[in-house]
Amino acid sequence: MSRIGKKPIQVPSGVTVTLKGTQVDVKGPKGSLSHTLPLGITVEVKEGSLQVNRQDDSQQQRAFHGLTRSLIQNMVTGCSTGFKKELELIGIGFKAEVQGQTLMLNLGYSHPIEYPFPPGISIKVEKIGKKASNYMGTITVEGIDRQRVGQVAAELRGFRKPDSYKGKGLRYSDEVIKLKESKKTA
User: Which is the most buried residue in 54, 82, 91, 130, by most CB within 10 A?
Assistant: First the structure.
């Protein structure tokens, strides 16, 4: 049996889980999410927790078992506390600011980049003074859907990936960049 799939999902207080056939709805203080179960996967409610079960031991059922359990766990966590990703903006002259529901980025290109907020996502920008040499600020992406938060953070990072020589660009706050040595002249 799947090690991830057989673990029960603890439902915190303030979060309600509703099962309607193959539909799982989760409502909490942050919002609500829903997921359709794949064929052969069932969910049972047991004493304030959820148990995900599969009908047989075929390879596809085993794969869906752990996946479904992880997706439902992420829905419960997102509706209760939410998810966030932080990106660091590093580079002289790079700027980020929020104007209404649009993130404006100046990343060294000839034009500013306008990124409208997707539904269910909030973006905050914290500007840092001239403490560090090139560190300009932090962009925080928050939401209840873990997949969407990660996708938005990846799209923002894709506008200017970290340079491998100076480290300039957008990077995740926990990302480690190994800088290459520059060319040496004789």
Answer: 54
